């Protein structure tokens, strides 16, 4: 007899990596599921922290009232700044619907090398940031459409959406609902967003200080005589970047006509060589968009060898790439376009458009000549229009304001109502509209609102409006934005008020040109080397969202200085 031999187990190191395909696949699936579940619960936890409990908010913030119309970049950043600086002030933010934090996150220039839609009919919306409804945890948030502002009673009349109404916002229901229904929401037009109208439920919100941060919508401008909203972003006519990208992909022959549409006031009064002197800043689109879109679309057609079959034409009523930008920027862009042989047509705009025949009549007001162009794809860079309630409320009475809020260009205070301010695209300011301008205006308006709350002339024994204005901080017209040159190269120009004269209420772009400034680490106009690459990385890697959520809305940094927050003394001077 003998005992059976015991099997000897092979010793394995507990730290050895198993090379089994089945083990690797199972580990990968487990890691993916774990990451997805952790991300879900993290996002839910962030959403739960979006605001303080209603009772606590009402108990601690029972002081004066500040109403902010608009929850975009300007509204969110301003609400966070005021609530952090004034612990007793009750802030109410009114927004029509959840949307992207600000449209400059993804400018139209990214149509050729992106794979998403922004505010298009495609329904792709994964870039939506929770910052709009999360960062203002100390503010009452109301989802509704502003119908009008009652300046005599200091009240904002809002038609609310009951599903998104927050209990923290104390409102007074009016007895008779308003009969005026706006067709233009606070962002893009309804025919671009495809949003349904909210139910009629009118409320009134009293305010001690009102801040308009509602932005501006894109408008067809002078083309509304030839086009309707249903014809845009459909066959052969594109506005939004996602639709533009899809049209370029499926285009194999025919002319691509890219037109920067001028404001209606310019097109109706443009006669003769001196017509450019009537162009104003207020209703112009974001000027960096057109230049970046030209560069991106040209690059797309060149890369896929479509230029021989799809001629590209860039048309603008400006005398250069953008008359609103400083001369140095225009010269740098024009040199680049000459190297690429871009078919650029300045001093030209559309006088007639036939969408059925796909024909556009172009008029050059310098040579006074007309040209009929048969296009296969029409790209439109549309001008801006302010929300209708601003004009209906008497906050834009001058014809030169074109429906935008009339404010002092330095203090951003309304010219007729001392307790009303405007910030961002809805303000009639003689500067270029951009996200950089918005963030530079936030600390100025925040300081001025605090001074108005403390010393505003609303009761007996208080200081006069003139004395209060002497304490205001002053905005110097700062604006900055990216200009896409190639896929991974970009300029980042900065500008301020240049030839400004206080006797000009609404100066034209020729009367008050902007001056180039430099607060960055390197040259603003450098784009062909590693500096331009780093500029491009800022928007290509979605650092807009990161900077907005973690820096700008936390009050940790506001332009123009790097990583600093402008602070002002009691006399309005910068400390």
Automatic annotation (TrEMBL):
Question: Does the entry feature the keyword Membrane, yes or no?
Answer: yes
Record key words, sorted: Membrane, Transmembrane, Transmembrane helix
GO terms, biological process: sulfide oxidation, using sulfide:quinone oxidoreductase
One GO CC term, this protein: mitochondrion
Q: Which domain of life is it from?
A: Eukaryota
Q: Which InterPro entries match?
A: FAD/NAD-bd_sf, FAD/NAD-binding_dom, Sulphide_quinone_reductase
The record's listing under Pfam families reads: Pyr_redox_2
Which residue numbers delimit the FAD/NAD(P)-binding domain? 65-219
GO terms (molecular function) for this protein are: FAD binding; sulfide:quinone oxidoreductase activity
Annotated transmembrane regions:
23-43
Record's protein name: Pyridine nucleotide-disulfide oxidoreductase
Protein source organism: Trypanosoma brucei equiperdum
């Amino acid at each position: 007899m003998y005992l059976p031999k015991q099997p000897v187990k092979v010793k394995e190191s507990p730290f050895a990596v198993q090379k089994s395909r089945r083990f690797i696949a199972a580990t990968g699936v487990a890691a993916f599921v774990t990451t997805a579940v952790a991300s879900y619960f993290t996002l839910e936890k962030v959403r739960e922290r979006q605001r303080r409990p209603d009772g606590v908010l009402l108990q601690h913030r029972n002081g004066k009232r500040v109403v902010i119309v608009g929850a975009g970049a300007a509204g969110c950043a301003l609400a966070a700044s005021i609530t952090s600086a004034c612990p007793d002030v009750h802030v109410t933010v009114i927004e029509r619907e959840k949307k992207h934090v600000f449209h400059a996150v993804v400018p139209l220039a990214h149509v050729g090398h992106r794979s998403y839609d922004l505010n298009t009919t495609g329904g792709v919306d994964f870039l939506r940031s929770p910052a709009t409804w999360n960062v203002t945890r100390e503010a009452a948030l109301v989802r509704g459409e502003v119908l009008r502002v009652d300046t005599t009673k200091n009240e904002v009349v809002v038609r609310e959406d009951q599903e998104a109404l927050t209990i923290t916002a104390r409102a007074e229901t009016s007895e008779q609902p308003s009969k005026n229904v706006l067709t233009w929401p606070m962002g893009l037009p309804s025919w671009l967003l495809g949003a349904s109208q909210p139910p009629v439920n009118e409320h009134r919100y009293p305010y001690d200080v009102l801040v308009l941060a509602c932005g501006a919508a894109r408008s067809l401008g002078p083309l509304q005589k030839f086009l309707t909203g249903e014809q845009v972003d459909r066959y052969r006519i594109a506005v939004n970047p996602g639709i533009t990208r899809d049209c370029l992909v499926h285009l194999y022959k025919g002319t691509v006509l890219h037109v920067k549409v001028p404001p209606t006031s310019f097109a109706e009064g443009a006669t003769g060589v001196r017509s450019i002197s009537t162009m104003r800043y207020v209703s112009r689109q974001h000027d960096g968009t057109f230049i970046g879109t030209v560069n991106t679309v040209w690059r797309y057609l060149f890369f896929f060898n479509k230029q021989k079959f799809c001629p590209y034409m860039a048309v603008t009523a400006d005398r250069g790439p953008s008359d609103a930008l400083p001369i140095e920027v225009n010269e740098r862009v024009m040199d680049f376009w000459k190297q690429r042989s871009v078919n650029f047509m300045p001093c030209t705009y559309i006088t007639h458009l036939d969408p059925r025949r796909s024909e556009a009549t172009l008029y050059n007001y310098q040579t006074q000549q007309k040209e009929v162009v048969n296009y296969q794809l029409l790209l439109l860079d549309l001008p801006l229009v302010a929300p209708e309630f601003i004009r209906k409320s008497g906050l834009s009475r001058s014809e030169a304001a074109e429906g935008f809020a009339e404010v002092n260009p330095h203090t951003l205070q309304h010219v007729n109502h001392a307790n009303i301010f405007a910030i961002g695209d809805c303000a009639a300011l003689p500067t270029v509209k951009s996200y950089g301008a918005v963030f530079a205006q936030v600390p100025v308006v925040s300081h001025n609102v605090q001074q108005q709350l403390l010393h505003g002339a609303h009761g007996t024994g208080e200081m006069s409006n003139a004395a209060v204005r002497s304490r205001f901080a002053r905005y110097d017209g700062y604006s900055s934005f990216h200009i896409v040159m190639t896929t991974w190269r970009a300029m980042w120009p900065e500008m301020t008020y240049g030839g400004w004269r206080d006797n000009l209420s609404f100066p034209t772009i020729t009367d008050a040109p902007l001056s180039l400034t430099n607060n960055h680490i390197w040259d603003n106009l450098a784009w062909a080397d590693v500096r331009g690459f780093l500029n491009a990385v800022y928007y290509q890697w979605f650092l807009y969202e990161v900077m907005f959520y973690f820096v700008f809305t936390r009050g940790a940094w506001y332009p123009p200085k790097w990583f600093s927050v402008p602070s002002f003394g009691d006399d309005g001077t910068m400390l």
